[in-house]
Write a structure and sequence with these properties.
With 333 residues, the chain is α/β, with parallel strands linked by helices. 42% of the residues lie in helices and 16% in strands. Helix 3 crosses helix 8 and helix 10 crosses helix 12.
């Protein structure tokens, strides 16, 4: 079990080479995306409080546009482009929520978007990206295949690359979620987010440490513990091809998110696949809130006893709610 880290200083103060992203960047991002992004609700649950021994607040980014926090970062990146750059369009590689988020943000600005997606991407996600008006270019499923195809797209179109998590504009946009939390609950002890590529965790850490004395914790599946290994060893560990139901957390920390996590985050904890499924189902049943497996990871870590939050006031970010209803995990045999 990991208990609440008490020191107010970063867990690794020796990591001083942080990317040049500040609380001011996050605040500017909040102003920039305000006309487009939803201000999502912050919910409470007596059941979850009783189970955790804490006062918990749940930020419902599953109710964000495209069903995930990813729209915040994509919108900030797209609407921060100058006109000349915007006319060339934007491009990325993604099979998930970032693909949909960038497609919608580009449509709202009236510019082209090209998304490189693996051939085996879920059909529902492919249809959603097409529905937002983006052009899809298919590639092999290996990361190198997607990167090579994206290079071809960028040479062909001259489009601006918007990385799913490691782009500073994306990181600042994701941090706006934490600003909203703190505006409603300024006296928190903890803010806990899922961690995959680290855009949400890094942006949250910038916002929270710039506006609060709360500590920031990341949570990830034990089956995809590359962020935990990177955090604890001080060396960036690639994700490889992890087998976890939390498909949104299968990516690695990047050049920008790794130093943010090392320098500003207090701890990272891991949790089991069984706990993730159990937490997801509990939220559906007791809170009547539809979340995806990745969003359930912070609560799973608490309920499994991997993070002791007893007596604290903690906010958890429900990162998304895009679920294939034909493949619910508790229906698998």
């Amino acid at each position: 079990m990991s208990s609440i880290p008490r020191p107010a200083e970063p867990a690794h103060p020796e990591d001083s080479a942080l990317p040049p992203i500040s609380i001011q960047d996050v605040r500017r991002a909040a102003e920039r995306i305000a006309p487009y992004a939803h201000r999502t609700p912050l919910l409470t649950s007596a059941t979850m409080d009783a189970l955790s021994g804490a006062r918990l607040f749940f930020k419902c980014e599953n109710l964000q546009r495209v069903g995930a926090f990813k729209f915040r970062g994509a919108a900030n990146a797209v609407f921060s482009l100058d006109e000349a750059t915007a006319r060339r369009g934007v491009a990325t590689h993604s099979s998930g929520n970032h693909a949909q988020a960038l497609a919608l943000a580009a449509r709202l600005r009236g510019i082209a978007a090209t998304i490189v997606m693996p051939e085996d991407a879920p059909k529902v996600k492919v249809q959603a990206v097409r529905g937002y008006g983006a052009r899809i270019v298919f590639s092999g499923s290996a990361p190198l295949d997607r990167e090579r195809m994206l290079d071809d797209v960028l040479r062909e179109t001259g489009a601006e690359f918007v990385h799913p998590s490691d782009d500073p504009r994306v990181i600042a946009g994701q941090g706006t979620c934490a600003l909203e939390i703190l505006q409603e609950q300024p006296d928190l002890d903890l803010v806990i987010t899922p961690v995959g590529g680290g855009g949400l965790l890094g942006g949250t850490a910038i916002a929270v440490r710039g506006a609060s004395r709360a500590r920031v914790i990341g949570a990830e599946p034990a089956a995809a513990d590359d962020a935990w290994r990177s955090f604890t060893t001080g060396r960036l560990h690639p994700a490889g091809s992890p087998k976890t139901i939390a498909d949104g957390l299968r990516t690695s920390l990047g050049r920008n998110t790794f130093p943010l996590v090392r320098g500003l985050v207090s701890d990272i904890v891991t949790t089991s696949e069984e706990a993730i499924v159990s937490a997801m189902r509990l939220v559906w049943e007791r809170m009547k809130v539809v979340i995806e497996p990745s969003a359930a990871v912070p609560l799973a870590a608490i309920l499994e006893g991997k993070l002791d939050v007893r007596g604290s006031r903690a906010a958890l970010i429900f990162s998304g709610g895009n679920v294939d209803l034909d493949l619910l995990p508790w229906l698998r045999t």
